[in-house]
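EI: anyone free to look at a 334-residue chain?
SC: sure, send it
EI:
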Amino acid sequence: MVVKGSVGINKVLHGIMKYRMNEQRNMVEQFKKVRDNPVPTAVFVTCVDSRMLPTRFTQTNVGDMFIIRNAGNLVPHSSLVSVNSTATEPAVLELACVMNQVKHVVICGHSDCKAVNLLYDIHTDPTYQSSAPSFSPLRNWVTVHGKRTMEEFAKLEQAQFRRPLMLNKLNKNSKFPAYVDVDEKFSVTDKLSMVNTLMQMENVTSYPFMRGHKNGRIHIHAFWFDIYTGEIHCFSRKEQTFMITNEETLPLLQAELDEMIERGNLKRMQAAKKNSSSPQSILDQTQTSDQAMKDIVSEVKRSFSTCAQDCTHGGHSQKKSEASPTSSSEGSTV
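SC: here you go
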């Protein structure tokens, strides 16, 4: 008889045996290819939620991405990090983007996020404070690092989500708009999760080493995973909102990504001329990373277009709403 408390670890151990039989040999071959010279192409920031499997829905492999996971896919703002108050997230950004010259950072939130749900309850449930424990690491984490998210969410909620969230671009000299669920397809906590995902993009830009990187511009992206449909929503700066990644939208998203990368390459080449470096060598250094990011977007579409076109699972209509905000802006990189 199997003791109930041992079921979890037994599943892990049996999984290890399946890995040894079915996957180990192939993985060792992959390790051999990247062991001495891995070339990761993205930093992927997502939640620890057990339903989130980023390497599965991006179809990435050994050596492809740095992955940061925490409760609520939060990136602490630089104002909250100091010599006396360190954090893993900016340390990984420095390791990846400064030391390993990774050019793409992806923030990926998701529906029914328990950390985000807690953040909402803390600020909206009058009975929560009286029933909450005297100290909770999770409560403290989401309260401190989700404060700006709640402030911006309150403004959008007051405007019934008809006005956009305004986010700093990477150079912090201007802002770009981001609309959140103007079609009212998602719950209030899922809206908060989307706002939270977008706010982490801005938090990434708060670090000087991300803005003044000598090896060229960093591109920051926002994904949002719907655990009820398996759909991945990608934030489009041109459409100013999240778009489902599917056969219809993929060409638009890839064209936007191409345009963004081209602008970044042009700026790098101009900087190289000023610094007497070879423009072609600067361009060559970025092409592999940029192509890999486009491959990730393609794999997201291919792997998780799970529902039929007329799916209404969980109350989420797949039909593109005519009310979605559009813009003729250039859709500049964050």
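EI: The longest strand covers residues 219-226.
SC: 👍
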